[in-house]
Amino acid sequence: MVHCETANQIAKHNYSHNDEQKENEKINNGSIKAHENENVCEVCTNSIGTEFLLIPAGKFMMGSKKDSTSSPIHEVTISKPFYLGKYPVTQREWVLIMGSNPSFFKGHDNHPVEQVSWDDAQEFVSKLNSKEGTHKYRLPSEAEWEYACRAGTTSKYYFGDDESDLNDYGWYSGKTTHPVGQKKPNPWGLYDMNGNVWEWCEDKWHSNFEDAPADGSAWEYSPSSLRVDRGGCWSSLSRFCCSALRSANIANDPFGFTGFRLLREV
């Protein structure tokens, strides 16, 4: 079961996690973009309370010249809109589907789940799809993740190039995870895209973007046993939280800094 909110309905509600975020959640500040069709769902909430924002189709330049693994910069076309989790999957949501909590920082329902392997995330996705009788849930591709993170920006971070501003947008260089949604969102209303937990993507690891898909699909073919994760985490240095920064880990390793964010196909 998925409950959807149209653009008009969103304007009447507040989805913030604390009072300081109220202004960031209003539709007229650009955090949530309305379509001309007022009946298009802008926010969806599923059976376990996961909130999704509609990410529009479009094109963007993926990668960075400052890191060899993120080169070459190349144009990617996202041909279809998709829903992406407003926050990384929380411990509460994980337990509702999986029954137990693997996190190191247990006891915090609204913290992101961590110590989750890529294989674990796939099991969660499979069980959620079965619960709702659908096949629409999955991990985002690496291209979809960066597209949503950038949210139309071309700077080092989605808020600009000055890393001194990162503290307003993400948890990093710390000692623990934090509740989701406490920092400022990106221009499309997504929270915790910088820091808190690394986020698994669907793709296998490649050492650079030579011959990468240009259609936004996951890059599956590779002899590597590694899977991509993005975004940095609670203990990362600021440079690891850049929009284009790439990382990877073994698919069956419940890496202590890694969680994930759900994608739901439209």
- What order do the SSEs take from the amino end to the carboxyl end, as H and E? EHEEEEEHHEHEEEEE
Radius of gyration: 17 Å
Number of domains: 1
Taking the sheet with the most strands, its summary is: 6 strands, antiparallel
Number of helices: 4
Low-pLDDT windows of residues = 7-38
The helix/strand class is alpha+beta
Find the count of extended strands (DSSP E, 2+ residues).
12
Gap between N and C termini: 14 Å
Supply the CATH superfamily name. paralog of FGE (formylglycine-generating enzyme)
**Name of the CATH class:** Alpha Beta
- Name the helicity range: 10-25%
Here the CATH topology equals paralog of FGE (formylglycine-generating enzyme)
Looking across the biggest beta sheet, what order are the strands in?
1-2-3-6-12-7
Proportion of strand residues: 15-25%
> Could you report the average pLDDT, rounded to the nearest whole number?
89
Query: Tell me, what's the shape?
Result: globular
CATH architecture: Alpha-Beta Complex
What does this structure look like?
This protein is an alpha+beta fold. It has a single domain, classed as paralog of FGE (formylglycine-generating enzyme) (Alpha-Beta Complex), CATH 3.90.1580. Helices cover 14% and strands 20% of the residues. Strands 1-2-3-6-12-7 form a six-stranded antiparallel sheet. It is globular and about 45 Å long. The relative contact order is 0.20. About 12% of the residues have low confidence.
